[in-house]
Write a structure and sequence with these properties.
The chain is an all-alpha fold. The chain has 22 helices and no strands.
Length: about 600
């Protein structure tokens, strides 16, 4: 059998077709039901058992454990899930991803679903071109589904049947003669393959295809499946690279949970496989779509065919049908191995979640960075779906609000400070925080801009525009506070002093502005911006304006007095005008939160 470069590209192209279909299908379902999936993850993780079912359900729907784990890591990063809650979701995702293997082996290899893939395009394309957003996303899901099975069909056809190529089989078999070390070797192969294709579903499809085409025996394929369980954890590790401490710990929990499971299975695999075959044999008696045939049964039926009175052509035909059935049975057993292993692993290690969580604390040491505002904390560049990115953006924008609120605290201390050295230190803090507000605005808006060219729902588009406007107002607030600091620096240099009445009125205005900041932060920290109300922020804006008018009238009434310093009056005017403008930006932010943009 000849196998050249062209055949390699056929396999790679088929694999890319499969992966693209998987991605399109996953993206479509996330866009169509992304908000519901987020809601499920947030509300159904109150205890570990619910978390397991949530992870299973989400992965079964999205058809990607990577999507579920990345989503989970990002929610931990955003503070929406605790590490223990995330642990349950990730364990459930491990079981949920086994559904993919059953879909491939049953629909892709038995029922020939690829034959209806083309008609699915006819059904999905009108939906994709629809003006209705939700219908459009479901169309994307259906077309992705069709592409996935076309890719699987092409992959199956591109991988050559190895029954006539004993040399290649001998090459593989030489790695299968080392017992325990052979299992370790093929675990490594499975891990590497998953890292390369960046999808455990795609790696599983490759493994099942090689089984169906006679490349792999069951024990080799089972070891590769274990490696794929480890390889899929790399995606979560990538997602956590720029995350906070808890996000990194969540990713490490996923890795350790899977690695520990693989360790005990590699040791017990020979005994486990014997029990598994008994289980699959039983399943085949109650589930007609599961095929069972062990080596003894295959040898017996093969001998019966060879000893029959059929013609040579009939014997070859019967033997080929038997080989196909045996390989299908091996494929079904491999899907069963994947499912049973993950269920047993979850059951065995479920009680040790606390131990794994403590272990992650030793791996990821506290860095003290969580109380600092030197860099973004929640945004995760590995999350590419706008619907999921809004969760992280909302947390980051709320954190942005905390930064500007601190600038108000520094400003109050500066206005009331009588020590020049301390005052200069507070001015420098305002400058530092103004730089932070500039950087936050730049990085968050760049992130939003990168998402804006992706397809998204109208609701998500409106929300991203809200974040954009909020960040713009936050940056302007930072600039005003910095200018306030510069004004106070000039006051110190020129030895200008406030009267007690001026200082008292400034403090009264600051307290009203502080309440306005609290209202803004309350709205920014809502679970959903839909809950935001504007009545209170408008009341506070009126209070700020009234206090500003009172201070302006006081200033004008005293300007003709010889005891009233004109330079002090100018600084006084500058400060209360600056705080009033900050109040206007706070109203803009609240309006953006409420959707009135």
């Amino acid at each position: 059998m000849e196998f050249g470069l062209w055949d390699v590209f056929q396999i790679l192209g088929s694999l890319c077709f499969f992966i693209y279909g998987m991605k399109m299908m996953s993206d479509g379902i996330q866009k169509a039901a992304g908000s519901q999936l987020r809601s499920i993850l947030r509300t159904m993780t109150k205890n570990r058992i619910l978390g397991v079912f949530t992870g299973f359900f989400t992965t079964a729907v999205v058809q990607s454990s990577s999507a579920t784990t990345v989503m989970t890591v990002s929610f931990v990063n955003a503070g929406l899930l605790s590490l223990v809650e995330a642990a349950g979701v990730m364990m459930g995702a491990n079981v949920g991803t086994t559904i993919t293997a059953w879909i491939i082996t049953i629909f892709g290899f038995k029922f020939g679903l690829s034959t209806i893939s083309v008609p699915l395009f006819a059904f999905g394309l009108p939906m994709l071109l629809s003006n209705k957003e939700r219908l459009k996303h479901w169309g994307e899901f259906i077309i992705g589904f069709a592409i996935l099975f076309l890719g699987l069909s092409f992959l199956k056809g591109s991988v050559p049947d190895m029954k006539a190529n004993t040399e290649a089989l001998a090459f593989l078999n030489q790695f299968a003669q080392w017992g325990f070390f052979s299992r370790l070797f093929f675990v490594f192969v499975g891990t590497l393959m998953t890292i390369i294709v960046q999808s455990s579903s795609a790696a599983m499809a490759i493994t099942l295809t090689m089984v169906i085409n006679g490349w792999l025996s069951f024990d080799i394929a089972a070891a590769m499946v274990l490696g794929e369980n480890i390889g899929t954890t790399i995606t979560a590790q990538f997602a956590a690279l720029i995350g906070n401490r808890n996000a990194k710990r969540a990713a490490w929990f996923h890795t350790m949970f899977n690695v520990f499971g693989v360790i005990w299975m590699v040791i017990l695999m020979p005994f486990f496989i014997k029990g598994l075959f008994v289980f699959v044999e039983y399943l085949s008696t109650v589930l007609p779509f599961i095929t069972y045939m062990d080596d003894a049964k295959y040898a017996s039926q093969l001998e019966a065919i060879q000893n029959s009175n059929l013609s040579q052509a009939q014997i070859l035909s019967e033997k080929e049908a038997l080989d196909t059935k045996f390989r299908q049975a091996t494929s079904d057993s491999l899907a069963a191995f994947h499912t049973v292993f993950n269920i047993i692993n979850l059951t065995l290690l479920f009680g040790f979640v606390g131990f794994f969580v403590r272990l992650t604390g030793r791996i990821v040491k506290p860095g003290g960075e969580e109380d600092e505002f030197d860099s973004l904390k929640f945004i995760d560049s590995s999350v590419k779906t706008p619907e999921l990115a809004t969760v992280e953006l909302q947390k980051e924008v709320a954190r942005y609000g905390e930064i500007t609120t601190r600038m108000l605290d520094f400003s109050k201390d500066l206005i009331n400070c009588t020590n020049d050295e301390e005052s200069i230190g507070l001015i420098n803090k305002l400058k530092k925080y103004e730089d932070i507000t500039d950087r936050f605005e730049k990085e968050i808006t760049e992130y939003i801009t990168n998402l804006s060219d992706k397809e998204m729902s109208h609701r998500t588009s409106v929300r991203l525009r809200s974040f954009f406007n909020i960040c713009n107002d936050m940056e302007r607030i930072g600039d005003i506070f910095y200018q306030l600091g510069k004004t106070m620096e000039g006051k110190i240099t020129r030895k200008i002093y406030f009267t007690p009445e001026q200082r008292n009125q400034m403090n009264d205005l600051i307290e009203i502005v502080r309440t306005a900041f609290e209202e803004m932060n309350n709205n920014l920290n809502l679970i959903s911006y839909d809950q935001a109300t504007l009545e209170r922020c408008y009341e506070l804006e009126d209070d700020i304006n009234n206090q500003r008018n009172k201070m302006r009238d006081f200033n004008q009434a005293n300007l003709n007095s010889k005891e009233y310093n004109v330079n002090s009056a100018l600084v006084f005017t500058n400060l209360f005008s600056s705080l009033e403008r900050i109040g206007d930006h706070l109203v803009n932010i609240n309006e953006s939160v409420a959707g009135e943009i």
